[in-house]
User: Fold Diaminopimelate decarboxylase from Fluviicoccus keumensis.
Amino acid sequence: MTAFTYRTGTLFVENLPLQELAERFGTPLYVYSRAQLEAHYRAFDEAFADIPHQVCYAVKANSNIGVLNVLARLGSGFDIVSGGELARVLAAGGDPAKVVFSGLGKQESEIEDALKAGIACFNVESDAELDRISAVASRLGLTAPVSLRVNPDVDAGTHPYISTGLKENKFGIAIEDAIRVYQRAALLPGLKIVGIDCHIGSQLTTTLPFADALDRVLAMIDQLAEHGITLEHLDIGGGLGVRYRDEVPPTPAEYAAALLPRLKTRNLKIYMEPGRAIAANAGVLLTRVEFLKPSAHKNFAVVDAAMNDLIRPSLYSAWMDIVAVTPRDAERVPYDIVGPVCETGDFLGKERKLALEPGDLLSVMGAGAYGFVMSSNYNTRGRAAEILVDGNHAYTVRRRETLADLLALESVLP
Ligand SMILES: Cc1ncc(COP(=O)(O)O)c(C=O)c1O
Ligand SMILES: N[C@@H](CCCC[NH3+])C(=O)O
Assistant:
């Protein structure tokens, strides 16, 4: 199922033509589909239905409160990495008892807020963090539920910037140190060991690295049991990839099928932290062609979205599909689709065959994850608006930033 389909020669989201949404809300514009978000969430939830589990959507992928609220209503939990993300989850009506807190630099105030909110678990990444959580919990007279994030040293086979489960990556506790750190955790005040966690990278397109990592973590669980440490849950992280171009990533059902035989015999609740697989293909970025700039070497289409709106192509050389919302019946020629920002690296796509005229509307597909959340105000550009479509209706879930918004936080010397 996809909520983005061509009908009568123009691209729709659910029952609404994107052309009309661009006219109504302006561009650049992030457009999300409620139905698509829900379908992706349910695919994970149903795939693991045979065992006790909790899907904890990774908020970093798309933290819009409207998006979080759609997922919270379905019973989703949340994987957060900051106090800011916790505040968003709570504002969206998320259940703190279904929140896991990841990330390797948790601050004291963030730990305090999460403890007071009553989150399900802290995924701990170092000895020093364990000490900090223990100190904060003891000071507050509370008990912090903790898991250790172990680094299984598995190659996720993904882009080096988004691989996290190798020895040389900054994430997690080396698997050979894990027993020692668990033993320390068991002796520290204010902590309750509840689980184990691992996340090896993002945009994985095969199940093999997941299965490899899981085998290593399960072996670790057995060793821990021999040392008298028993766990209630296993957090398998996120990372399942999506199709941007021609990738054929496993579906949530195929992902579950690869892991379930290993998990069924275990008395463990399974947590998972998918982000991209839920949000990416539930959203697009709409942008309008400002100018066409032909030259002897290249054709440029200068559009009103830029690297500050969507940085994935510039940052990771990520290929994202760019389609005409209402394709013209004319010869297609290759264009570099570039933004107005003063950087050579400011492009959304290169050598895309399109038939374009100024004023045409383009849709960057798969932009629902790591899109708006990574946007910035570079070149003093206001951030785009975000809208959420629900059947026949579209709602602004974040208004466009105005010049007044951009200037409001700054001041001059007295
Ligand atoms: C700890 C953790 N959990 C979950 C995710 C979500 O990953 P993805 O969006 O690839 O599912 C990430 C990001 O890679 C992460 O670092
Ligand atoms: N931001 C990255 C993914 C990073 C995953 C976060 N741990 C992307 O756009 O692909």
Summary: The first strand starts at residue 4 and ends at 7.
